Amino acid sequence: MTYTRLNSLLGFACGLIATCVYIATVEKTVSWWDCGEFIACAYKLEVAHQPGAPLFLLIQNIFSNLALGNAGKIAYWMNIGSAICSGLTVTFLFWTITAIAKKILNRQENVQLSNYFQIFAAGLVGAMAFCFSDSFWYSAVESEVYAMSSLCTAIVFWAILKWEVRADEEGSDRWLVFIAFVMGLSIGVHLLNLLAIPAIAMVVYFRRAGQISAKGTIKAFLVGVLILGAVLWGIIQWLVGLAAKVDLLFVNSLGLGFGSGIFFFCLLLGSFLIYGLYYSHRKRQYTLHTGLLVFCFILFGYSSYTMVLIRGKANPSLNNNAPDNVFSFFGLSEPGAIYPGAFTQRTQL
Q: How many CB atoms lie within 10 A of CB 277?
């Protein structure tokens, strides 16, 4: 049996064991804290508290259908969804540990097949220790965002190690685009995943730098922090805020209808990205082209927030911040900010 096949089988085995344990110990009903709100919002696709977690609600809504109309089982099946996400997290963690262990051993001379035992032992011990850790097990058995967020983080770090192995191959940077898409999706779950960006920047630096130095390492880390800030504030908040200001200009100053400024802003942004991709491809500016693709795929993942606007417009029973327009939506994307109608909730009796 080849190393790759054995690595895959052991990873799936770890994930299966973890999933079975979590399902056996899963909460039978609603847990404390935010679980009740998330379960209610996912079941009826309502608007949860800031910043909304739309992708989490959409996926959990699928698990709610497994209750087959039995309202007493809805919470249980959504808890099962967290258990499955946590089991998959353990699988990707095993593959991450074995990838790092193999890289360490490959630095030695005359690596034998017997060394693979050390690699798989490291993966098994690390993955199963994490599986049974208190905090992770706690989040794995209830319908909270942390299980799915951990899965997104595990996928992202596994993917950057896949890129690191193939960095010299043609088309290897598609893994970076894939990472950007997963990070965009993770915004619709929890922002924890964004903290992996500085670590990804360090991996890219150590793999691509011709000569590694302390100054270059610090610079790579700071670039990662800047990218983190650009996504956290630039894309998630300022992009929505700019769209709100454009819509305000179109409605109040130009006398056009509501949403006309948003349509113009989206059209302008889309045109800019299309032209940028065309220009960078024609001029063979590879770095610019990859950067624009990364930006586009983050936006594709971030688009899960359209669910918040659509459901906010429908005015469901639980409608935190009532995001039926771009200004209230902007308040939803920036918790703690003061906006007209912020932190309000409409209730239908």
A: 15
- 345-346 and 319-320 as β-strands: parallel, antiparallel, unpaired? antiparallel
Q: How far is CA 226 from CA 90, 109, 209, 219, 241, in A?
A: 30, 39, 19, 10, 20
List Cα–Cα distances, 306 to 35, 178, 299, 324, in angstroms. Answer: 23, 21, 11, 11
Q: What would the pLDDT profile of 58-86 be if each residue is shown by its tens digit?
A: 999 999 999 998 989 999 999 999 999 99
CB 329 within 8 A of CB 240: yes
- Give the largest Cα separation in the chain, rounded: 75
Q: What is the DSSP string of 56-117?
A: HHHHHHHHHGGGTT-GGGHHHHHHHHHHHHHHHHHHHHHHHHHHHHHHHHHTSSS--TTHHH
Q: CB–CB of 34/144 below 8 Å?
A: yes
Say what the alpha-carbon torsion angle 108, 110, 112, 117 is, to the nearest 10 degrees. Answer: -10
C-alpha distance from residue 18 to each of 13, 94, 122 (Å): 9, 12, 17
| Segment holding 37, helix H or strand E | helix 35-44
Other CB atoms within a 10 A radius of the CB of residue 263 amount to 15
pTM for the complete prediction? Answer: 0.89
Residue 108 in tokens: 């030695």
DSSP 3-state helix, strand, coil percentages of the chain (rounded to 5)?
75, 0, 25
Under 8 Å between Cβ of 136 and 148: no
Cβ contacts of 101 within 8 Å, gap of 6 or more: 118, 119, 122, 123
User: Which percentage of the chain shows pLDDT scores above 90?
Assistant: 66
- Mean predicted confidence (pLDDT) in 25-34: 89
Bridge partners of 47, per DSSP, are: 319
Instruction: Give the DSSP H/E element, type plus range, for residue 185.
Output: helix 174-187
The pLDDT value given to residue 209? 86
Q: Please, which residues have CB within 8 angstroms of residue 136's CB and are 6 or more apart in sequence?
A: 86, 89, 130, 150
